[in-house]
Amino acid sequence: MSARRGAVWAGGRCGLAGVEEGWGRLRSTAPRARGGPLNRPPGASMNGVENGSGLPLSGLELLTTTRAVRKRLDVTRPVSRETLRECVGIALQAPAASNNVSVRFVIVTDRELVAQLGEIYQAGFEVYRSLDGVYIGSIQKDDPEEAAQQRRTTASAEELAAKMPQMPAIVIGCVQGGTRAENMPGWVTASMHASAMPALWSFMLAARLHGLGTCWTSVHLQQEKAAAELLGIPYDTVSQLMLTPVAHYTGDTFQPVSRPDPETVIHWDRWGQ
């Protein structure tokens, strides 16, 4: 591993300059995929991105500026079913283990159900807040810049919990199998989750292209049975993996943030190298 273990990788101009240059060359030379820009099946609608109403983001911009949005979410503006459906359509292009699409999206827009689901989230957040060393507000950072970022993120997490019952839409990402994932051997559970998670992240990237904010959360899983009962999710065969609010975000845009130097998290050929 690099001697620069303590360094912070500048996720802005410096750290991404080489990537941006290479990405530009790739875009200029890559052949168009079969089926059009998104290689979609015939008849699939993705008008929000292709008709110009989506954000004009390059692939690099999309990957480096899709943030967890907690504060800048417009709870007064509805998100249309068509937009949500388009995001799912894009997400389903993600890889799936054995070419078996096991991911499921429970999209909640009914105001009463959103309020009740938001309260379930808040109950889970109360437990999360009590976990020292796990709750974000209990984790101390020595670096002043990182400590300031930690305080900001703590405040935004608290605000998200307070606003969750008011969200225009909440999406629960699930994986469907023959039984609960935890009833299977560890490698099978990992495979089941890994089959669904690429599509769930792609959903959030698609939402970003549509000018929507999302935030991958898991604290409601402490109350998974309650959420399953509320929404009619078959608990014995469908495992919930995450929950995200979906709302139009306020403000202008998002920027890359400070992250560790890549060499501090890479082990070349074997652990510790």
Task: Give a verbal description of the structure.
- There is one protein chain.
- By secondary structure, the protein is an alpha+beta fold.
- The chain has helices at residues 13-29, 47-50, 59-65, 81-91, 111-129, 144-163, 186-209, 224-231, and strands spanning 8-9, 103-108, 169-176, 212-214, 238-248, 259-260.
- The strands form 2 sheets. The chain has a 4-stranded antiparallel sheet. The protein has a two-stranded antiparallel ribbon with strand order 1-6.
- Helix 4 (81-91) crosses helix 7 and helix 5 runs antiparallel to helix 8 (224-231).
- The chain is globular and about 45 Å long.
- The chain starts with 7 loop residues before the first strand and ends in a 13-residue tail after the last strand.
- The model is unreliable at 1-14 and 22-46 (pLDDT under 50).
